[in-house]
Amino acid sequence: MSNPAKDHKADTPAPASNFIRNIIDADLAAGKHALRRWSGQPGLAAQQLAGELDAAKIRTRFPPEPNGYLHFGHAKSICLNFGLARDYGGRCHLRFDDTNPEKEEKEYVDSIIDAVHWLGFSWQDEKENNLYYASDYFDWMIASAEYLIESGHAYVDSQNAEEMRASRGTLTQPGKDSPYRTRSVEENMDLFKRMQAGEFADGTLILRAKIDMASPNINLRDPAIYRIRHATHHNTGDKWCVYPMYTFAHPIEDALENITHSICTLEFEDQRPFYDWLLEHLAEGGLLQRPVPQQIEFSRLNLTYVILSKRKLIQLVEEKHVSGWDDPRLPTLVGARRRGYSPEGFHLFAERIGVSKSDSLIDYVLFEDCMREVMNESAERRFAVLDPLRLIIDNYPEGQSEDCVVHNHPFKPEFGTRVMPFSRELWIEREDFMEEPSKGYRRLFPGNMARLRHGYVVECTGCDKDAAGKVIAVHCDYLPDTRSGTPGSDSVKVKGNLHWVSAAEGYSTEVRLYDRLFAYPAPGNRREGDAPELERDFLDDINPDSMQVITAILEPALKNARPEERFQFERHGYFVADRFDSQDGAPVFNRTVTLKDSWEKKA
Ligand code: ATP
Ligand code: MG
Predict the structure, then answer these.
(1) Which of 209, 347, 414, 507 lies 20 to 30 A from 394 at CA?
(2) Would you call 300 a catalytic residue per the annotation?
(3) Measured between alpha carbons, how far is 49 from 405 in angstroms, rounded to an integer?
(4) Which residue, of 464, 487, 506, is where some domain finishes?
(5) Which long-range contacts link 468-471 to residues 24+ away (Cβ below 8 Å)?
């Protein structure tokens, strides 16, 4: 398989390409699915044909295995499948592909349900609730397997795993028929029944489709369809000791649910002939309704600076490189939510990257820009001082305070206003003062004037230092006629424009400045100039500065922020009130993304 991360240059995304929409348009125009019937529930042909014409123009599905947390790649698939159903008057099913007895857990089911809802999608309306568990279909899968046996399209093989591997052949050499391939229908049926009854140990027998051991497509060389596994299943308990293989189960699940377009990632392309073979035979036997679902492959999401491999994500969590599955630096959807990335941002991103059939690597900046674009519209503005330095206005009366009324959004008056108290002592950013200004510096330095936004123009008069020479306070005088919004306030022209927080009313709280988890675009991959023998490990590419925890001083209105409320901290970026953590009941904040990308120049 090609490795899309091997050249570290990200592609410029093409405008949302939509070959899948073209397929759907053509199908609808041809009336391909118009006569499908739907009983309201998944089921075999007999049940569906007794139902009404399916009101859903198309049916898609998102079919996660509940064996882990969803990540950005799944978000692409969710937006695609649910988005198509929405746009075409169809339905999208959420199906837990839980046919493997060993791995699934309830914890994952719950978190997947949460994530799909969080992204703004639903599988349920007044008429239908399309939440399904593939393990509810085991009886129908058994019926399908038995039909294949009866019709001479499946047989029980007694070869062991090693023998089966050896007789499978290679890409260049055909396989060899199993000596058990010619078993009679009766013998096959008897053995399969006894497999189900628990008479045989794991791995001793296996049911295989009888197709063609010489096929150039290895997936058609009599693929295994049912195996013996004495294991307790979280849904069906000990009812079964045989379980279907994924490549057998998945097409049947799609067909039982009346799925019209079964969209999956490219690595299943070689499985499509088996998908079609299987459904064709089951439809021929009258088990499944026609037309059968069509499998369509698209390329999976790959992003620079991001790891989406389940195995590596597990390693990051288990080895405690991050704080847990919802660490805001992880590309999981639970992490994204804590980070403050918005569902609307994911929708925009999915639309921008589109779908295609060629592997591509998307620049992380594109993802961040989508988030910025959405939040620029939707996030209220606030003042926050992240690296506080005290500013004392010596000519402002002690004990006096005024309310500055400030718009919450620069171009959305409907977002209303808030009050910021202004007083004699304020906090400003340390970087907004320089005792000896560098060339072009426009903010505060002795003798220079700057505007305190929404307040007054002040003139810097000097600073106080501690014994070590560190500046601990800045002094200034204000110009009483320059209050923002009053007539003539702009008669004094200044170049610096600073944000501030009143010292008495501002509140100090924890703020986490998150950054990319990896410092290199293709974590773990070789870089230009690497010695030929050098092997890289993705863990070595972790960005040591991916999280900085600071105590910041925020304007008082932020004390009332609700968990998950997002803001732009002016000049700093977008921040979210953490869903779970607080400090003495007051919100703590996570940085979602800076206002501008600062990585291009670093890299
Ligand atoms: P596993 O490695 O366990 O198979 P998976 O990431 O494929 O994990 P699934 O639960 O099988 O997880 O995936 C559910 C759906 O999400 C599938 O339809 C799959 O195609 C899609 N999907 C998974 N990863 C990506 C990705 N990076 N980009 C787009 N779609 C993805
Ligand atoms: Mg998978």
Answers:
(1) 507
(2) yes
(3) 66
(4) 506
(5) 471/389, 471/430, 471/433, 471/435
Q: Which tokens belong to 105? A: 């857990």
Q: Which of 21, 37, 57, 65 is catalytic?
A: 65
The DSSP symbol for 71 reads B
**Tokens describing residue 215:** 């096929």
418 counts as catalytic: no
8 A C-beta contact, residue 222 and residue 241: no
310 belongs to the catalytic site = yes
Domain assignment of residue 576, yes or no = no
Q: Nearest 5°: CA angle at 79, between 518 and 592?
A: 40
Provide the angle, in degrees to the nearest 10, between the axes of the packed helices 272-284 and 138-150.
80
- Residue 495: give its domain's CATH number: 2.40.240.10
Q: Which amino acid is at 62?
A: F
What domain range includes position 483?
Answer: 381-506
**Phi and psi angles of residue 110, each rounded to the nearest 5 degrees, phi first:** -60, -40
- With a cut of 60, say whether residue 5 has pLDDT above it: no
> pLDDT over 70 for what percent of the chain?
96
> Cα–Cα distance between 505 and 193 in angstroms, integer?
76
Model confidence at 15: pLDDT above 60: no
Say which ligand is closest to the CA of 94. 1
Residue 216 three-state SS: coil
CA nearest to 459, candidates 473, 441, 446: 446
Considering every ligand atom shown, identify the ligand nearest to the alpha carbon of residue 331 and give its number: 1
For 355, counting Cβ atoms within 10 Å of its Cβ (0-12 exposed, 13-18 middle, 19+ buried), the class is buried
314 lies in some domain: no
Q: Which residues pair with 587 in a beta bridge?
A: 582
Residue 434 lies in a domain: yes
Record the tokens describing residue 158, joined without a space: 């007694």
| Exposed/middle/buried for residue 141 (C-beta within 10 Å: 0-12, 13-18, 19+) | buried
Q: How far apart are CA 384 and CA 553, in angstroms?
A: 6
Tally of structural domains, the chain: 2
233 in any annotated domain: yes
Q: Give the DSSP per-residue string, 165-231.
A: HHTT--SSS-----TTTT--HHHHHHHHHHHHTT-S-TTS-EEEE-S-TT-SSGGGSS-EEEEE---
CA quadruple 180, 182, 187, 190: dihedral sign: positive
HSE at residue 588, side-chain half, CA atoms within 13 A, is 16
| Tens-digit pLDDT profile for residues 358-412 | 888 999 999 999 999 999 999 999 999 999 999 999 999 999 999 999 999 999 9
Residue 190 has pLDDT above 60, yes or no: yes
Write down which residue in 506, 522, 549 finishes a domain: 506
Q: What is the arithmetic mean of pLDDT over 567-577?
A: 98
- Kindly report the CATH number assigned to the domain that includes residue 200: 3.90.800.10
Pairwise CA distance, residues 194 & 349, whole Å: 52
Tokens, residue 283: 């439809």
**Pairing status of strand 501-502 against strand 507-514:** unpaired
**What is the 3-state secondary structure of 520-549?**
CCCCCCCCCCCCCCCCCCHHHHECCCCEEE
25: DSSP letter: H
Query: Closest residue (by CA) to atom 26 of ligand 1?
Result: 73
